[in-house]
Amino acid sequence: xxxxxxIANKVIEGRAQEVEELVKRALEDGVEVSSILNEGLIxxxxxxxxxxxxxxxxxxxxxxxxxxMHKGMDVLKPYLEKSGVKPIAKYVIGTVRGDLHDIGKNxxxxxxxxxxxxxIDLGVDVxxxxxxxxxxxxxAPLLGLSALLTTTMPSMKETIxxxxxxxxxxxxxxxxxxxxxxxxxxxxxxxxxYAPDAASAIDKAKExxxxxx
Length: 213
Description:
The chain is of the alpha/beta class and 213 residues long.
């Protein structure tokens, strides 16, 4: 459908105002809410993710596109709730204790939302107990831990240990990311997945979700 392609293109171009107007028009035209979400907004963000992965887009373009997508989501939200369209899954994310960096985490959170996940962002300097509490209360199948400092990386292991002590480690897939991290470190601390960048994080999240189904 032409209007859905147009919504996707305007998301890619980061034209927030136009995305908002097109989503409203699509709703007025009786286009299904799930189609506007999946074939318009999410389809656009998927292309943005691919472009980011291929170094055709950089962080500023992704942020602008994500803002445009959120503008459309704001219009769609009440309709989504009414129509019962459910997100793919809940994803809890945060920067670990002692670390105040959030650009990478915010980028991953935006792209997860753009891929259809319900993101619960706990912010920065999050202690292991807080991650455990939210994962348990929300029954989230996915947890993302971010760190930019080598000195805060051990907090990732502490969080995984805390999940074990709480008896919920087998109920959640843990992903780790951040500039100093490697696949080797992720394996060493017992994480389920590692992503070197925001676009890869989306692929890894979907892969882990399929494993846990």
